Structure formats: C-alpha cells, structure tokens
Amino acid sequence: MRSVKLLLVPIVAALLLGGGHVESGPRTARLRIVAPATMEFRTLGLPLGAFTGPHTFNRLQPGRYVVVQAPPVPGVLQVSCTNGQTMQQDLVAGDDVTCTFSIVSG
Prior knowledge:
The protein has one helix at 2-16, and strands spanning 29-34, 40-44, 50-52, 55-60, 63-69, 76-81, 88-91, 96-105. The chain is mostly beta strands and 106 residues long. The relative contact order is 0.23.
C-alpha cells in the first residue's frame, strides 16, 4: 500500500503543477502587415482600430479580421496575402499570415 501512495504523489503533484497538461498545438494566430511606413490602415476586430505602416498582430483568437488601407493612396493599391485571402482574413488557430500592401503605379 505504501508503494502505491508513493507512486501517486508525483502524478498528483504533476497534475496540480500543470505537468500533466499536453498542448495540442497553437491556439492563436498571427497576422503581419507589410506596408510603406506612411501607409495608413483601419481595422475591424483587431486590437488597434487604426495604425500606420507595418505591424504584427500576435496571439489573435481564431476569427474574422478586416484590414483596410485608408484614407486612399494615390495610385493602384496591390494587396497580397500568403493564405490567398486579401483584406478580410478568416484566421484559425496556428495561422501565420503575412499581407503585403504596395502601390504599383501612380
């Protein structure tokens, strides 16, 4: 009986200290915006409602996020994201997406 108690103590201690928890993978997503330093953006669902230039949003919960370049810039705006989506991003846990905004002509 004593040996059983000695075996259970480390198991209970590990569970109480979180040692028994196994992560199944990332539970958040990352969204990187690559853009000229002066380009302005408005967002929906992201921690910042507006920002200028490049920015990285870490630890986003899965969901829908919108990034819009505003006010409009002179020229033609080109948007390219590594997941094939554009300004509206439907992110799932583990996503690591980079969106590049550039002006292709004036």
